[in-house]
Amino acid sequence: MTLYATLDSPLGELLLVGERSATAPGGTALASLSVPGQKRGAVVQDDWTHDPAAFAGIARQLRAYFDGAQQPFAVECAPRGTDFQQRVWAALEAIPYGTTTTYGAIAAAIGAPRGAVRAVGTAIGANPLLVVRPCHRVIGADGSLTGYAGGLARKQLLLGLEGAAPEAR
């Protein structure tokens, strides 16, 4: 059964989507966290169940994040994506709060060849868990803001919140 809830945030209304899990805190594994107008963002389906209580734990963590807490998210995620995407997404989760890295550094971190930077960018762009899996912390090799499914203004807002915002170019 697919569950969903919405949460007001500085990014706009977040859409949280998950599924029941016996091992997840609160009993829900997060499958998607998206923002309005996001490329490939989730859209509520007729057979989904609106259940804000199922997302109470992640909602608390997200509010704390937007209030400036520097805690890593403790969320069980519903498995999605290819093996390559999973490796890239695990590397995203290792980027510390308040820091940035580059697409090339992510490729190196997962042992991908130098020519795989574009594939890394594609995998990052397919990240279904904005904010929680911090793809906003990945910037261009020249230090510029590049690519973000939620839009560059939101990426800059998130990096600014964390004290790591480069200038948009």
From TrEMBL:
Main location: cytoplasm
Record keywords: Cytoplasm, DNA damage, DNA repair, Methyltransferase, Transferase
The keyword Transferase is annotated on this UniProt entry: yes
CDD domains in the cross-refs: ATase
UniProt xrefs under Pfam families: DNA_binding_1 (PF01035)
UniProt key word Cytoplasm: yes
E.C. designation(s): 2.1.1.63
Subcellular localization(s) per the UniProt record: Cytoplasm
Top-level EC class: transferase
Catalytic center residues: 135
Gene3D superfamilies: Methylated DNA-protein cysteine methyltransferase domain, Winged helix-like DNA-binding domain superfamily/Winged helix DNA-binding domain
Domain Methylated-DNA-[protein]-cysteine S-methyltransferase DNA binding as annotated: residue spans: 83-163
Reactions that this protein is recorded to catalyse: a 6-O-methyl-2'-deoxyguanosine in DNA + L-cysteinyl-[protein] = S-methyl-L-cysteinyl-[protein] + a 2'-deoxyguanosine in DNA; a 4-O-methyl-thymidine in DNA + L-cysteinyl-[protein] = a thymidine in DNA + S-methyl-L-cysteinyl-[protein]
HAMAP family in the cross-refs: OGT (MF_00772)
Similarity remark: Belongs to the MGMT family.
Other comments on record: This enzyme catalyzes only one turnover and therefore is not strictly catalytic. According to one definition, an enzyme is a biocatalyst that acts repeatedly and over many reaction cycles.
Function: Involved in the cellular defense against the biological effects of O6-methylguanine (O6-MeG) and O4-methylthymine (O4-MeT) in DNA. Repairs the methylated nucleobase in DNA by stoichiometrically transferring the methyl group to a cysteine residue in the enzyme. This is a suicide reaction: the enzyme is irreversibly inactivated.
Name of the protein described by the UniProt record: Methylated-DNA--protein-cysteine methyltransferase
